[in-house]
Amino acid sequence: MGGLARRVGYIKSFKLRSNQEVPALFVDAGNLFTDDRAMGSRLPDEDLAKNRWVTKSYGKFNHDAANVTYNDFLYLSDLLKKDGYQERLQEYPFIAKIVSANVHPTDKNLQPLQPYVIREVSLKRGKPGATIKIGIAGFTEAKPQSPTDKPTAFEVEDPFAAAKRVIPELKKKVDYVIALAYMAQPDAQRLATEVSGIDTIIAAHQVSAQDEPQKFNQTTVTTCFYQTKQLGELRYYIRSDGVIENQKNRYIALDDAIPDDPNAAEYVADAHTDFTNEINKAQQIQQADVANADTAILSGKSLYIGQDSCAGCHQKEAQIWQKSGHAHAMETLQKRNQHLDADCVKCHVVGFQKGGFQALYSTPQFANVQCEACHGPGRVHAENPQKGYGFVQTPQGCVVCHTQNNSPDFNFATYWPKIKH
Amino acid sequence: MTVPSSRRITLRRKVSLLAAMTFVGLLALQNYGCSGPGPDAIAPDDTFHPDLNEPKLKERLGEDDGYALAVMYGADIHGSLETCG
Fold first, then answer.
1. What pTM, to 2 d.p., does this model score?
2. How many CA atoms does the CB half-sphere of A143 hold within 13 Å?
3. CATH of A4-253 among 3.90.180.10, 3.40.430.10, 3.20.20.30, 3.60.21.10
4. What is the pLDDT of residue B36?
């Protein structure tokens, strides 16, 4: 579900269905860039490739605004460098549409972010010929503090204070104010109640809420779906005097009912090739330097032991597993050429980034969803096979990976018999 | 033909004023966002011909009941133009 090609396909279909009489904006509430493989304050080439394609495609398909959050800081500190900024802006015009009212560079060599953008759209319905100005401002929470945090090139101002400063200024310039808010739902609601002048808050926080939007005073608060697997859509009904009289919110499942836009699909394919090339290069370097690999895993001292060891005693269970989808989980990713993407790999292997699977070349024994993916690391149990190991609470243990987003059809009652052992 | 010096000065002032206004305008645009009727987000083109009567797509698009404007939204793509499955 989801992805650029379907999202663009839906929006184009939407416009064609209304005979191109309805202007449609697209806004992103934050967490645009990856920093998954960051090493200290540096992004590796494969992350840079992904982020470059996001910036390029958001510009190509005229997306209207994107909010900034702390996951974006590393790449932003490249995009906003004053040195070469104008050239970069020409190559990636979307940079000018990345907004934040409460993220400020602390490095004087970085270009400040703009607090908001203003889009003016011409109406063909409601009051044909009239224009309506929409202001889109960005706010984010600060990163939850962790002892391993490295200093960044940005400071995050209190979003409520920033909103109280920026929204009145924006309200004077536009007819309608949208706040993109990367923060937990209670904070988005607080923004709605404490700051007047916002018409709609579009909140995001790595969740998948399908709740109806809530209204606080004059402000509507709605929430994004994680990874935009479902597209949020606000429809506005405008009176003949040009005033917005009503709005409706919908979520559209971007599944195979939505045709891919061929141009966007081409961008996605090119981005994928670029990313795969970069990660292959990185893995070749690692292969040449075995010392880079986790020595505990390579020397057999990982807390994980792998399927073959489990099967030594649990043959019946191992046979059932062999026939299950779990045993072929990595194959599924390989078919889609996603076996190098950490976001996907973590749910298709054992112990990813926890001392288990690293990569197919170095730790193939931990590929696929094996026993220890659900039952936990087995070394201690294998060395001292007593009772008390391996209890799995269901369905809680399953829905760690079988989320609404990744596995929308998941139903424990029908899925469990497929792996019952 | 020579331009009188007083007219030359006026002309120079006008050019300077125009240059200053252009600079200030560009600066404002850069600092306070792009305004104006720019291209619509994702305009339909000749490469895309969806079957709008296909029942599942029709259901996703919902009823056209007179709305005049739409704002589509999403988040958390975290560097991925495609999702895992």
1. 0.75
2. 18
3. 3.60.21.10
4. 47
